[in-house]
Amino acid sequence: MDMFPTEVKWTRIPKKSQNISQSLFDMGGEYYCYGSDITCTFPANGKFTPDQRAIYEAVLRSSRAVMSAVKPGVAWPDMHRLADRVHLEELTKIGILKGNVDDMVKVHLGAIFMPHGLGHLLGIDVHDVGGYPEGVERIDLPGLRSLRTARSLQQGMVLTIEPGIYFIDHLLDQALRDPAQSCFINNDVLQRFRGFGGVRIEDDIAVTANGMELLTCVPRTVEEIEAFMAEGRSGTKSFDGLSSQRQ
Ligand SMILES: [Mn+2]
User: Fold this and answer.
1) Burial of 242 (0-12, 13-18, 19+ CB in 10 A)
2) Domains of the chain, with CATH numbers?
3) Ligand 1 mean position to 39 CA, how many Å?
4) Which of 129, 153, 224, 235 has the fewest CB within 10 Å, making it most exposed?
5) At what angle do helices 222-234 and 50-69 cross, to 10 degrees?
């Protein structure tokens, strides 16, 4: 898909970027009135710390797990649940969480780290209409209730896939106060991530007959981002797509 950025949806550009360790840009180009919605998260200095890399790669893993599962007939809330599950598995590997992931799912621990929905329909509106036609009910559960659609996927639908892991103090405090959730949290390790902010990776996709087509072409892996930022610093650089973009 050819796109030129005629309009930035919105961005948060830090004023004092030297004091900010990580940046999250949520942007979109528009093409003949059709919107796009792409989020890139990257270290402000161009080099991931071990903790930044761990969280970034956890989110990238959930994004790619969803991309592998997307096809016609799949229920979008199940894709949200899949992303949540990957996040919980990865946060356990990092050491922030401990215990059985199935039990974490039962107490909706995923919504503490990803309080928004996995993604939304894209079209002439960035958050396009049609997410809840008659007969499709909103699921009133943490995280899932924020989904802008609960539909099953159909060929030709265009959506965002935008998982994220965030460290939001009031949500973390809420989880720590709830014995059903706090039993899964290694608070010593979690302390290290207070003030970390969050990572979101947002791509645009079209559902095809057997799977999906990825429409976004930006540096995505840690290696791609670091190489891109290093080369950008040293002169001219244009990103023309790398193997990690292909499904
Ligand atoms: Mn979006």
Assistant:
1) middle
2) 42-219 (3.90.230.10)
3) 8
4) 235
5) 120
